[in-house]
Design a protein that fits this description.
Layout lengths: L13 E4 L4 E5 L5 E4 L14 H24 L7 E10 L5 E10 L5 H14 L1 H6 L4 E6 L1
Parallel strand pairs: 5-6
Antiparallel strand pairs: 1-2, 2-3, 4-5
Helix pairs in contact: 1-2
Length: 142
Amino acid sequence: MAIEQIQPLYTAVATAENGRDGRVASDDGKLDVVVNPPKDMGGSGEGTNPEQLFAAGYSACFQSAMGVVARQRKLDITGSTVTAKVSIGKLASGGFGLAVELTASVPALDEAATKDLLEKAHEVCPYSNATRGNIEVTLSAA
């Protein structure tokens, strides 16, 4: 299966030093954080970690995708939120993998309409497109 090429609109650049127990910074200086393994994984837990950074990016991107779909369908998503839970764990086949739970609260929509919006946003979101078929992603309405 061929990978579909994109026409880049923007490219983010970040550099890590010392992996999960070090520092990550963007080339423009807007992101500069200490990363440490969480206490649950035997680390100090003092800094952030890659899973938190991924959760932050996925939740923001997914909510923007909801906005695209909502505008197309003339839906009100004022006051909505998206929470991403990113889990890391061992794979039965060896190595490590991720799982994501996305939960959206959309005060102006009922549960059925919210779930439909989530399904459509999942088709639009670049993070969803990047992870589809690679990791488990669960969608739910709050």
